[in-house]
Amino acid sequence: MDPARSRLVALAAERGVSLAALSGLLGRNAAYLQQFVRKGSPRKLEENDRRTLAEFFGVDEAELGAPPRDTVVTVGVGAPVRNADWADIPRLPLGASAGPGSLAQDAAPTDRLRFSGRWLRQQGLEPSMLSVIEVEGDSMEPTLRDGDEILVDRSPRPLRSGLHVIRLDDVLLVKRLESGPAGTLLVISDNPAYPRMERARADVAVLGRVVWKGGRI
Question: Using CA atoms, how far apart are residues 7 and 145, in angstroms rounded to an integer?
Answer without folding.
Answer: 45
